[in-house]
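Lay summary. Proteins are chains of building blocks that fold into shapes, and those shapes determine what they do. In this project we predict the shape from the chain. Here is one chain we studied, written as its sequence of building blocks.
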Amino acid sequence: MKKIIRNGTIVTASETYQADILIANGKIVSIGKQIIEKGAEEVDATGRYVFPGGIDPHTHLEMPFGGTVTKDDFETGTIAAAFGGTTSVIDFCLTEKGKPLYQAIKTWHDKSKDKSVIDYSFHLMISEINDRVLEQLPEVIDQEGITSFKVFMAYKNVFQADDETLYRTLLAAKELGVLVMVHAENGDVIEYLTKDALQKGQTEPIYHALTRPPEVEGEATGRAAQLAGLASSQLYVVHVSCKEAADKIAEARSKGFDIHGETCPQYLVLDQTYLEKPNFEGAKYVWSPPLREKWNQDALWNALRTGQLETIGSDQCSFDFVGQKDLGRDDFTKIPNGGPMIEDRFSILFSEGVLKGRISLNQFVDITSTKAAKLFGLFPNKGTISVGADADIVIFNPTRKRTISAETHHMAVDYNAFEGMEVTGEAESVFVRGEFVIKNKQFVGTPGSGKYMKRAKYGEMMTVSDQVDTVRSE
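And here is the predicted shape, written in a compact code that computers can read:
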């Protein structure tokens, strides 16, 4: 059914203006004043912002880790994402050495089949590079539309790849037109510091942070950036948590390197003291990189404001406190790494960023949606409000206050990392390709309605399907 969103303030990465939006067949077909369309459903957005749907470029749904599996799958995770204003996610497909890449991709398709309520895509983990792997990559790109590869520089003996693998991946990416992502921590040093802590009987959650100091993140970020520069390739550093890493990205960008950085809401509002909570409560805040000393928050906000960091991912990786996190009650290395972030990414950045003057309203849209769409081959179908784009739209109340709590969130996990935090701004209605998924804060979507997104190569724009001829009118 056709819909008209009326009386809202449309906000994109570059414009803020009042207009109506006509939606038909999942697309935005017209933007203008007082649009008339017989039979269209009217949606009143008076006093509301109308944003392009959020794009979360960093999620781990139904992911195995540390002998368990993340609590939120593609159904509960994407429902929570939709409540938070996110209409597309890009999840990480984990591979195994010696096994065909397509085997891993099929596993992730099976996980997501008939579950997601929003659109989704995959990044592909690269754990080894050899002739057999290189032969598979062109088909993965062309057939699956997977145009981003991830290399772990940490988790020794589990995910960690060596520098040769990273460098050869960067060289291949340059030729194939894909974006290389890195988890940048020095896994070898972390392994040593971890063993040393355990030998000293230091087993509490705080030692997760103390054995992964900011220096190991800064070093790995700088090393990855240098290798990307040497390869004349493109690099995206995930979940930047500290000034050391942000500075290395800024330094590389000043040299003209094609480097991009992402941070996450948890690093902007939480700090290392949360891991010191008594009665093992600190385990709720164990993820990697760890939370940092509070002063790093100002450095991260400044990097977002100046564009040295360009996106915000959730790094959604939820584990129950009871029954999963407590696997490491006597050994912090056995605490599953990760936290529940997917639902509150949008509101936290708006409340703490826009309303506190740290970033502009247009920067908010760029950081939560547009830049990710451009970097990961989804633009202009996704990431903006324009004629011909998918009608992924959020009607957002900028004045509504709420208190974040596990009692009211929509994730399956038994705690919320931001428990008790008051935020201002809330998604009230959310459309995916023109259909309500959230309507007046109620879930009305259907599991399985989300579509898998094949993405364009790095630096290329997605071909807009079913491009319409109508234009924005004043």
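What the prediction tells us: Confidence is low (pLDDT under 50) at residues 465-474.
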